[in-house]
């Protein structure tokens, strides 16, 4: 696709943060946007969007959503369900849920939605800077993100000519860090900005702009785009 007008987009994890910004922009460009998440009733819907329930850890819910929505032109899968902490403390079910959100669920999205996508369809997956810069307590995040990059490459080959791209954000002020509290979050953002070459943290707008480019550039597939302010080099 080279334009979003009139195209149907499924945004999994689009009820908050970066996904909500993508939904807002895509709706403004004339796309028919369906936002999917585990709590559709709680989503504050941007204009020209609607919500549907879908849990990436539950294949039946993915199959049901596919039947309910019908064919889509693009899927943006940016759910995250974190399981951070020292390896010795990790709970197996939380680890599985985190990998469901990043890897297994996106594979099942491809299974249930790709067969009815058009040849110019697009799938956008989400990695993150922890893939290139794993730190203590981030084993699951780093693994899930790296797997999402590999999955984008593999799907791009198998589903061709449907295009598949992974986006790898750096630290983004998306709301996901708000639970730290203002003081700790602001300190974290300041130290992140001081260390990365862009000298700032990112915004949801920074990432949404690249996602819209990835959706509409017909020669882009089988790759990961790092939108991280150079954070993986810091
Ligand atoms: N923010 C950052 O600094 C940063 C950095 C690097 C990478 N990223 C990546 O960028 C993406 C978006 O980040 P964000 O900060 O915008 O995230 P966010 O606000 O935390 O959003 C995550 C979304 O995932 C959904 N979700 C979680 N588990 C799900 C499941 N099993 N099934 C369906 N939906 C599920 C949540 O919706 P429900 O709870 O309603 O289901 C939520 O809307 C993520 O993949 C994240 O890893 C972000």
How would you explain this protein's 3D organization?
With 234 residues, the chain is of the alpha/beta class. The protein has a single domain (8-226), classed as NAD(P)-binding Rossmann-like Domain (Rossmann fold). The protein is 40% helix and 16% strand. It has 6 helices and 7 strands; from the N terminus they run E-H-E-E-H-E-H-E-H-E-H-H-E. It has helices spanning 17-28, 59-69, 92-113, 139-159, 182-195, 204-216, and strands spanning 8-12, 32-37, 49-53, 74-77, 122-126, 163-169, 223-227. The protein has a 7-stranded parallel beta sheet, with helices on both faces. Helix 1 (17-28) links the parallel strand 1 (8-12) and strand 2. Helix 1 (17-28) packs across helix 6, helix 2 (59-69) runs parallel beside helix 3 and helix 3 packs parallel to helix 4 (139-159). The longest helix has 22 residues, at 92-113. The mean pLDDT is 97.
Features:
binds NADP nicotinamide-adenine-dinucleotide phosphate, Rossmann fold, SDR_fam, SDR family oxidoreductase, oxidoreductase, 234 residues, 7-stranded parallel sheet, 6 helices, NAD(P)-bd_dom_sf, alpha/beta
The CATH topology name reads Rossmann fold
Compute the CA-based radius of gyration. 17 Å
**SSE series:** EHEEHEHEHEHHE
Q: Which architecture name does CATH use?
A: 3-Layer(aba) Sandwich
Tell me the name of the CATH homologous superfamily: NAD(P)-binding Rossmann-like Domain
Total discrete domains: 1
Strand order of the largest sheet: 3-2-1-4-5-6-7
SS field, number of helical segments: 6
What is the distance, rounded to the nearest whole angstrom, between the alpha carbons of the first and last residues? 35 Å
Largest β sheet strand count, sense and barrel closure:
7 strands, parallel
Query: Judging from the principal axes of the Cα atoms, what is the shape?
Result: globular
Provide the structure class.
alpha/beta
Overall residue-averaged pLDDT value:
97
> Per DSSP, what share of the residues sits in E-state strands of 2 or more residues?
15-25%
């Amino acid at each position: 696709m080279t334009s979003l007008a009139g195209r149907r987009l499924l945004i999994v994890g689009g009820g908050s943060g970066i996904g909500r910004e993508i939904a807002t922009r895509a709706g403004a460009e004339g796309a028919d946007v369906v936002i999917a998440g585990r709590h559709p009733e709680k989503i504050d819907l941007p204009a020209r969007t609607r919500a549907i329930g879908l849990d990436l850890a539950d294949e039946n819910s993915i199959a049901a959503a596919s039947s309910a929505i019908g064919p889509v032109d693009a899927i943006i899968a940016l759910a995250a369900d974190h399981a951070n902490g020292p390896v010795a403390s990790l709970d197996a079910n939380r680890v599985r849920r985190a990998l469901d959100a990043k890897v297994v669920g996106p594979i099942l999205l491809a299974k249930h939605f790709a067969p009815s996508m058009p040849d110019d369809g697009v799938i956008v997956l989400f990695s993150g800077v922890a893939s290139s810069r794993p730190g203590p307590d981030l084993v699951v995040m780093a693994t899930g993100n790296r797997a999402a990059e590999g999955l984008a490459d593999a799907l791009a080959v198998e589903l061709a000519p449907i295009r598949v791209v992974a986006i790898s954000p750096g630290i983004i002020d998306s709301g996901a860090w708000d639970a730290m509290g203002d003081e700790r979050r602001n300190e974290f953002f300041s130290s992140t900005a001081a260390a990365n070459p862009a000298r700032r943290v990112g915004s949801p707008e920074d990432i949404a702009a690249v996602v819209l480019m990835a959706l509409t550039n017909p020669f882009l597939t089988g790759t990961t785009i790092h939108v991280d302010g150079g954070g993986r080099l810091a």
